[in-house]
């Protein structure tokens, strides 16, 4: 006897067009406990997948047309055709995440001589809060990509899919790392995930049963594909430039800060090795690269930057290298069940994100302070910053006290009581089901 589908899945399948069996793909959002802006620098992160997800129902079509429908009426239906070069929709359009996965999969399947990516009908229901730093966009890309891959009758190993989908997200103009996609695909229920990059490696880290995580939105959106994109890409470029200057000073070759030999030992020497700021005109002398080579390597056409003439180098590198050390210490704290130590590391991470990396906001800072005063063991912004959410660590018995403080001391003054906070649990990664 076929099992009964949950109402949400049944609603997506009802009226789904196409031919043949349908598939259901699910991908979770994530909360990064610590390790902000380290992934694209080749340094580790420590996220959890959360019990909020994107669910996709899909069925194959007999042509190359893709039809997208969203359960949220704010996202209008979209159509496009699968091909080697799929034209993008306007920046910020939700369909670009489906197109990003499709274009990457079509190229990869052709490269491996596995299958042709077909057209399909897709219906989507996203329950990850958007623009909150919880990776709703990557969950959408991963769920759509898993479903589309299944329609092609092909499979790829999940670590390879994570790297493919991380590269695919550059289609929307974001120079990101691979944390979000790896978490969505590789997470295990009840565990955090220590992820290292280049090559991708992941290991589960048990979450103590007395630990709880409260995610609270700042009421400020953080759209990496929208207004925040230039600021996000600015940080990526500043880190790459800092690496180039350090590599020249140290007489070595490195593509990322994480490629430098013993990067954690460089912290004490950053004042000597890196200028605080550099103008675009000063970069050839600092890096040893001619202006045209600099342009090709660090300023590819189409990349949006917040300030393409001036770059902060020392503070950005100080944050990244210090944050990598905090990730290692946080993993040890989790394995020891030491919430006090983990909370202190989260506090230090937020301070570094705010002061050295410049990605916090007054609202995020206030939320962090309110959560701590309400009984959290530690709190920090989570995600890229520039708005979005914080994550607060609490003893499970103290979560109500923390959320009451958030409502009373943050959301009430902003007319948003009860506030948009969630108590999340570490969830499993993506799933695929044929129905």
Overview of the molecule:
With 435 residues, the protein is an alpha+beta fold. The chain folds into 3 domains: 209 residues, Ribosomal Protein S5, domain 2; 109 residues, Alpha-Beta Plaits (2-Layer Sandwich); 89 residues, de novo design (two linked rop proteins) (Up-down Bundle). The strands form 4 sheets. Strands 1, 2, 3, 4, 5, 14 and 15 form a 7-stranded mixed β-sheet that branches. It has a 4-stranded antiparallel β-sheet with strand order 11-12-8-13. A hairpin with a 6-residue loop joins strand 11 and strand 12. Helix 4 packs antiparallel against helix 5 and helix 12 crosses helix 13. The radius of gyration is 22 Å and the shape is globular. The two termini are 13 Å apart. The model has no long low-confidence stretch (mean pLDDT 95).
């Amino acid at each position: 006897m076929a099992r009964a589908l949950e109402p949400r899945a049944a609603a997506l399948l009802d009226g789904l067009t196409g031919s043949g069996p349908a598939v259901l793909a699910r991908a979770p959002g994530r909360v990064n406990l610590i390790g902000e802006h380290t992934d694209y620098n080749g340094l580790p992160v420590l996220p959890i997948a959360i019990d909020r997800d994107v669910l996709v129902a899909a069925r194959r079509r007999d042509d190359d047309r893709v039809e997208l429908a969203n359960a949220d009426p704010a996202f209008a239906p979209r159509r496009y055709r699968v091909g080697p070069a799929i034209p993008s929709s306007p920046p910020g359009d939700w369909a670009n995440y489906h197109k990003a996965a499709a274009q990457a999969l079509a190229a990869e399947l052709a490269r491996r001589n596995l299958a042709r990516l077909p057209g399909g009908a897709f219906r989507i229901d996203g329950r990850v809060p958007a623009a909150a730093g919880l990776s709703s966009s990557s969950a959408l890309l991963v769920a759509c990509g898993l479903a589309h891959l299944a329609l092609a009758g092909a499979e790829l190993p999940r670590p390879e899919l994570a790297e493919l989908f991380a590269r695919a997200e550059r289609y929307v103009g974001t120079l990101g790392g691979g944390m979000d996609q790896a978490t969505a695909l590789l997470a295990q229920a009840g565990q955090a995930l220590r992820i290292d990059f280049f090559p991708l490696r992941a290991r589960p880290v048990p979450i103590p049963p007395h630990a709880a995580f409260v995610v609270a939105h700042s009421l400020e959106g953080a759209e990496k594909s929208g207004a925040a994109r230039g600021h996000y890409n600015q940080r990526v470029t500043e880190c790459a430039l800092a690496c180039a200057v350090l590599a020249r000073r140290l007489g070595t070759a490195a593509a990322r800060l994480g490629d430098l030999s013993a990067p954690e030992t460089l912290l004490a020497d950053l004042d000597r090795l890196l200028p605080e700021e550099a103008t675009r005109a000063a970069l050839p002398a600092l890096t040893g690269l001619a202006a045209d080579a600099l342009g090709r390597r660090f300023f590819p056409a189409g990349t949006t930057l917040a300030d393409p003439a001036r770059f902060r180098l020392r503070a950005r590198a100080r944050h990244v290298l210090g944050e990598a050390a905090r990730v290692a210490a946080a993993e040890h704290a989790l394995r020891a069940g030491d919430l006090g130590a983990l909370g202190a590391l989260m506090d230090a991470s937020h301070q570094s994100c705010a002061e050295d990396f410049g990605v916090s906001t007054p609202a995020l800072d206030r939320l962090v302070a309110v959560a701590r005063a309400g009984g959290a063991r530690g709190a920090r912004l989570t995600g890229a910053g520039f708005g979005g959410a914080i994550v607060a660590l609490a003893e499970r018995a103290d979560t109500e006290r923390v959320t009451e403080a958030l409502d009373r001391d943050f959301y009430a003054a902003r007319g948003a009581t009860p506030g948009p906070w969630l108590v999340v649990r570490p969830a499993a990664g993506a799933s695929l089901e044929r129905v």
